[in-house]
Design goal:
Blueprint: E1 17-20, E2 28-31, H1 33-46, H2 51-67, H3 70-75, H4 77-84, H5 88-91, H6 93-116, H7 118-136, H8 142-170, H9 176-205, H10 208-228, H11 242-265, H12 270-292, H13 306-336, H14 341-348, H15 350-369, H16 371-395, H17 398-425, H18 432-458, H19 463-482
Antiparallel strand pairs: 1-2
Helix pairs in contact: 2-8, 2-9, 2-10, 6-7, 6-8, 6-11, 6-18, 7-8, 7-10, 8-18, 9-15, 9-17, 11-12, 11-18, 13-14, 13-16, 13-17, 13-18, 13-19, 15-16, 15-17, 16-17, 16-19, 18-19
Length: 499
């Protein structure tokens, strides 16, 4: 804007001819080719008519890099325990701890992205995630490994809402369901590929090499994001509602801790009961904070919007059954049917594969039939899958277990893109970060609750009863999905200049 084209120092990021001073000779022009190529590529991408898809693929590369080790890490706990001379119960916190860190950090970091820009939050968070991924490979003890995983998950909590908000800003409202289909594909597919590729790595070289391999993937995803992503429009500068964030953290993290302790010590032990009581106090305090705050962390008005509330409720309840059923099915296969670990793992792949394949397809189908129908059908399939699991457990029908796994994956794969996009479409663009964080937080709570509750019920071998509890919780998810209104396909909401 009025800057002289001869002022080379005014824009250090531009690809300009630079002068190199060689002793004894005249100054000669040298071209900064890396900068030149980067700027040409960046300009071509950002001016492309398909820029929104560039944003999607960029963010999905980060999602893949972050999710690559999730499943294989859980499977490798026995090897890690032997290497660090500790027990498996202690090392379970390398999986549970990041869950708690995500629940703790997501709402606040989602709001920070709304205020300061989601590109900035995504790149800073992902950069720190890459650093802590490298540190994980150097962990010298179990406490160090747990601490590194938890702190690294806080950075990961920044990237989740930010990456989803970047996609939502890039895509118009009526096409977000397509993008969320691909999101679900990579989110479910990365752990599967990680298990297939990471298993041999662990067996051949040890568990640390998982993270030696993951760190470069994270750095590549970070570099792609730095070049491709454009900053999102920021909401007006507001004071961050730290009181509301603290109260919400108490209301979400303590119940997860209570579920973990309840299974270990008993549900009526004083510790989990006290945690649940404090969590209720935290929830009441959060509501009061949001009512009084001039700039609330999560405006309570969102919960009066049916698409937002119905979508969050349907996601949480469906995740309860989905993850609860998934965590106890391997035990059923091994304890009841006598399957080995390899055979169990092979059979269990049916569900994430069906989820991954159905998600992008359902995103495109929802554009035709509407988000409401896709969500109702998907949640209904989850209910049917729980019934199949219960029948298979009582009758000993292994084939029906495979059918149930496929139905479960198809169901959530069909419902998730529609529910996620419907909730996002229900809020203003300046609130996409915290709204997406709320979605991820409730699905996380539903998943952890399902895993702990159903695992507790089946501890005595009551597999059918556990699946029936999952079914009972999944039925209201279908009811909630019926309240979702489909986005009008003719509508064209304004898309920010950042898209």
């Amino acid at each position: 804007m009025g800057r002289s084209t001869t002022d080379r120092s005014a824009d250090p990021s531009a690809s300009e001819t630079v002068l190199a001073d060689y002793s004894g000779v005249e100054e000669v022009p040298a071209v900064a080719w890396p900068l030149l190529l980067r700027e040409r590529f960046r300009r071509r991408v950002r001016e492309s008519d398909r820029y929104r898809w560039w944003v999607l693929w960029s963010v999905l590369s980060g999602l893949f890099a972050a999710g690559f080790t999730i499943t294989v890490l859980a499977v490798s706990i026995p090897d890690i325990a032997r290497d660090l001379d500790t027990d498996r119960t202690t090392l379970a916190w390398i999986v549970t701890g990041p869950f708690l860190a995500h629940a703790l950090g997501m709402p606040l970091l989602g709001k920070v992205g709304d205020v300061y820009g989601h590109r900035r939050v995504y790149l800073v968070g992902f950069g720190l995630f890459a650093v802590f991924t490298g540190l994980t490979a150097l962990a010298w003890s179990a406490p160090a490994l747990i601490a590194i995983r938890i702190v690294g998950a806080l950075e990961g909590a920044a990237t989740g809402p930010a990456s989803m908000a970047l996609i939502m800003h890039a895509f118009p409202a009526e096409d977000r369901v397509k993008a969320m289909g691909w999101w679900a594909l990579v989110g479910a597919g990365a752990p599967v590929l990680g298990l297939v590729a990471g298993g041999p790595i662990v067996e051949a070289f040890g568990w640390r090499w998982l993270f030696v391999a993951q760190a470069p993937l994270a750095l590549v995803a970070l570099a792609i994001g730095a070049v491709v992503l454009r900053e999102t429009p920021r909401s007006r500068r507001v004071a961050i509602d730290f009181r509301g964030a603290t109260a919400l953290a108490i209301a979400t993290v303590l119940p997860l801790l209570a579920l973990q302790l309840g299974r270990d010590r008993g549900w009526f032990d004083p510790a989990p009961v006290a945690l649940l009581a404090v969590a209720v106090v935290g929830l009441v305090a959060f509501v009061r904070c949001e009512q009084r705050a001039s700039d609330p962390l999560l405006p309570l008005e969102f919960f009066r919007r049916r698409n937002f509330t119905a979508s969050l409720l349907a996601q949480a309840l469906a995740q309860f059954a989905y993850m609860g059923g998934f965590i106890i099915t391997p035990l059923l296969m091994q304890d009841r049917f006598g399957y080995a670990i390899a055979g169990t793992a092979l059979l269990m792949l049916c569900r994430p594969l069906s989820f991954s394949l159905s998600s992008p397809v359902s995103g495109y189908v929802a554009v035709r039939v509407g988000e409401r129908r896709a969500a109702v059908l998907g949640t209904a399939l989850v209910v049917v899958s729980m019934a199949c699991f219960a029948l298979a457990a009582s009758r000993g029908w292994v084939v029906l277990i495979a059918v149930a796994l496929v139905l479960s994956g198809l169901g959530l794969g069909a419902a998730s893109p529609s529910l996620i996009s419907s909730a996002a479409n229900a809020v203003e663009p300046e609130h996409l970060g915290v709204a997406n964080a709320a979605q991820q937080m409730v699905t996380l709570i539903g998943a952890v609750a399902g895993m702990q509750v159903l695992a507790t019920i089946q501890d005595g071998g009551a597999f059918s009863a556990a699946y029936l509890v999952g079914l009972a919780v999944a039925v209201p998810s279908v009811v909630a999905a019926t309240f979702v209104r489909s986005a009008p396909r003719a509508a064209r909401l304004s898309v920010a200049d950042a898209a």
